[in-house]
Design a protein that fits this description.
The protein is elongated. By secondary structure, it is an alpha/beta fold. It is built from 10 helices and 15 strands. The structure holds manganese (II) ion (MN). Manganese (II) ion binds next to loops.
Length: 411
């Protein structure tokens, strides 16, 4: 068998809106909006530089029907670059760009081949001894196990199955073209190029069953490095490498604080988190969600001065790098039990008891109560052995402690 290499990409979602990104800065906002297209252009450039033998996309090139031809023109332009570099492209329609979903068209260059949607089809690349099998989505949903209808392997060829599927179900992705690892293995292919799931996943290694993930994260639910896979095949053995092409990145970091942390400590922890995110992002513009967890006496302040805290956390991110943008600050902090005791209800209760203890009326009432109780006590206890005022003070103190303890118990 000859050796060759190819790009396995999926889920470009061209034309997809970015979700939950309320960045006020127009310039940074534009970067995120353009990121999906730029990521794809970068992938095409890398494919040309690397001189890959072919390029395949396992569904969801488009996020949905086009508003106008702009997206189609963009895709055609990129396909043209691959065409002039002599790189054939194999496209499979997914749920987002199913035949019935995309109503507009732009003619594509002749290097682009599309898998049929009515039944599985195969494309041979004879000089490489490669054959690709695939069936695209005709409709927005595909509930049948498409893989089971794929043809048997072509002997002495490297067989690649291309399929848009969630396999046995991968939340939050819709359960389309359900199939198991065993179903895919039953076809006897050498590589399964899947699409639909936006996380990179190596489902199996013998043969490789791979979700490359999407090229560009579009919300914090699609955080971390995004890209395609470059597969190098030598003597029928496939080596995989991820090709990270995302233009901008979403990241989520949990920061756990404790009761001893003051505002400067918390902001220092934010800087540490931002630094680790920036190291991971490798110079990419980053939208960061910070989730503050744990316990803090500052919880009331977080709530009362929320915007000030958001701004301070953004400022801490910018102290690490000007391209780290706070996507959201989630406050999941609880108050420490001691804060409840010293600052709220129980403190008031303690003060109340202390103040009432000094009141003459209360003391008088207590003395009358004592006088009525003492005769009822067993002989030898009480009867004038202790000066009454000492015993009243001691009782008042004991009552105060008891109340505080009960307050703590219910906190
Ligand atoms: Mn999909």
């Amino acid at each position: 068998m000859t050796s060759f290499k190819f790009i396995h990409a999926a889920d470009l979602h061209l034309g997809s809106p970015f979700q939950g990104l309320a960045l006020k800065d127009q310039e940074i906002s534009a970067v995120f909006v353009e990121a999906s297209r730029r990521a794809f252009s970068t992938l095409v450039s890398r494919a040309i530089e690397l001189g890959v033998d072919f390029f395949l996309i396992a569904g969801d090139v488009y996020d949905g029907d086009w508003k106008d031809n702009k997206i189609g023109l963009f895709f055609n332009r990129e396909m043209g670059r691959l065409d002039r570099a002599g790189i054939p492209v194999y496209l499979l329609r997914g749920n987002h760009d199913a035949l019935s979903v995309i109503t507009k068209t732009i003619s594509l260059p002749s290097n682009v081949h599309e898998f049929p949607t009515a039944k599985p089809g195969s494309f041979r690349i004879d000089h490489l001894n490669v054959v690709l099998h695939g069936q695209g989505f005709a409709e927005r949903s595909a509930n049948e196990n498409l893989a089971l209808n794929y043809p048997g392997p072509v002997r002495r060829y490297f067989n690649i199955g291309v399929l848009h599927t969630s396999m046995t179900g991968r939340e939050p992705h819709a359960p389309y073209a359900p199939c198991s690892v065993a179903d895919l293995r039953s076809r006897g292919y050498d590589y399964w190029a899947l699409g639909h799931v936006h996380e990179y996943e190596e489902v199996a290694s013998d043969p490789p069953i791979i979700f490359p993930g999407n090229l560009q994260g579009r919300s914090v639910r699609e955080s971390g490095a995004k890209g395609a896979v470059i597969v190098t095949v030598e003597d029928g053995h496939a080596e995989l490498e991820r090709l990270i092409v995302d233009e901008a990145r979403f990241a989520v970091r949990d920061i756990t604080i404790d009761a001893d942390h003051g505002a400067p400590d918390i902001l220092h922890l934010v800087e540490q988190a931002a630094r680790s995110v920036w190291d991971d992002a490798q110079e990419r513009k980053t939208a960061l969600r910070i989730r503050l967890k744990g316990v803090s006496r500052l919880n009331g302040q977080f709530i009362a001065q929320r915007q000030q805290w958001i701004d301070e956390v953004q400022a801490a991110c910018h102290r690490v790098h000007e391209d780290i943008w706070l996507e959201k600050l989630e406050l999941l902090v609880t108050e420490p039990p001691s804060a409840v005791e010293t600052e709220s209800a129980v403190l008031d209760l303690g003060r109340l008891v202390a103040e009432h203890g000094k009141e003459d009326d209360l003391r008088a009432e207590a003395e009358i109560l004592m006088a009525s109780i003492v005769p009822k006590l067993p002989a030898g206890i009480g009867a004038g052995e202790l000066p009454l005022d000492v015993s009243i003070n001691a009782l008042m103190e004991e009552a105060r402690k008891l109340l505080l303890a009960r307050g703590e118990g219910t906190a």
